[in-house]
Amino acid sequence: MTVPPEVREKIRLSLGLGEPMHIRYYKWCVQFFVNEPLNILQQTLGVTIGDHENRTRILSWATRSPVVDLIIQRTPQTLWVVGLSYVVGTLLAIPIGIIQAYRQYSWFDQIGTFVAMIGFSVPTFFTGVVAIIIFSVQLEWLPMIYDTTLEVNSWQNFVLQFKQMIMPVMVLALWQAAQLSRFMRASILDNLNLDYVRTARSKGARERTGRVVYPVLRNSMIPVITLIALGIPHIFGGAIITEQIFRVNGLGQLLIIAIEGADIPTVKPSLFCLLF
Predict the structure, then answer these.
(1) Which of 16, 86, 207, 258 allows an S-S link to 263, with CB 3.0 to 4.6 Å?
(2) What is the domain extent for residue 37?
(3) Is 247 part of any domain?
């Protein structure tokens, strides 16, 4: 890939090449954690701090445009797909885990355990390909490729938007619900064997009454909520491959394209945003 001399010189100035290692690292930190956030404030909120005209930018070698601008353009799609999948996965996992715990070793518990093992063990890229083959190629129910340019300005476009979001959202939600439902089930079973539950049983309270169910659910949700918060970064990692499979124009696809094109200035900020 040919890089114009003026672009190459700007990159060299921004990276501080030819200087000692600690100077280059310092300039990179200033560029990434000071200059680029100030540029984001100016573009999004119109707040100007310092000399923005002479402030250096991290430029993409492929598009020759500021990398932060590319990230800002792609972020809404990633947040929309990842956020919705996380909400759907959580809403599915909690009731499934509760039912499995109160119906331990039943047919529902066995099926839920089997599906959770598949959802947690099978990688998202395989699940996405299988979903495309079944629902797009064989049944022709859902679109194969996510149309990022679709504008929801009518009922028909809303239906199309809903259909094209089903597969990428459910692929990520399946992986999230698989591990969360198992954790919810185990947490409830642990609380059902505690002293306060046995005391309630000895006083004649049934397990499925409010006197037992509400305290058990309240105490069981404490570690589950912690797991939900800690699991947010992991689902961004799954979105990297899922976006590439369904052609979602988000941060994951931007990272894959940058890696394939050896666009190092784009790879580093994109990877930083996805992982941290």
Answers:
(1) 258
(2) 5-45
(3) yes
- Tell me: do 23 and 105 sit in the same domain: no
pTM of the prediction?
Answer: 0.77
Residue 57 resides in a domain: no
Q: Are 183 and 247 within one domain?
A: yes
C-alpha Rg value of the chain to the nearest Å: 24
Distance between CA 87 and CA 66 in Å, rounded?
Answer: 32
Q: Could you tell me if residue 89 is inside a domain?
A: yes
Contacts of 143 (CB under 8 A, 6+ apart): 136, 160, 163, 164
Q: Report the C-alpha gap between 80 and 146 in whole angstroms.
A: 13
Shared-domain flag, residues 103 and 223: yes
Tens-level pLDDT at each residue, the chain (276 residues): 566 777 777 767 666 676 788 887 887 788 777 777 777 777 777 666 766 666 677 778 777 788 888 888 888 888 888 889 989 999 999 999 988 988 888 999 899 899 888 888 888 888 888 889 999 889 888 888 887 777 778 888 888 888 888 898 898 888 888 889 999 999 888 888 877 777 777 776 666 666 667 788 888 888 888 888 887 777 777 778 888 888 888 888 888 888 888 787 888 778 777 766
Return the structure tokens found at 62: 């492929």
Q: How many CB atoms lie within 10 A of CB 44?
A: 9
For residue 186, what is the domain's CATH number?
1.10.3720.10
Query: Is the CB of residue 183 less than 8 Å from the CB of residue 97?
Result: yes
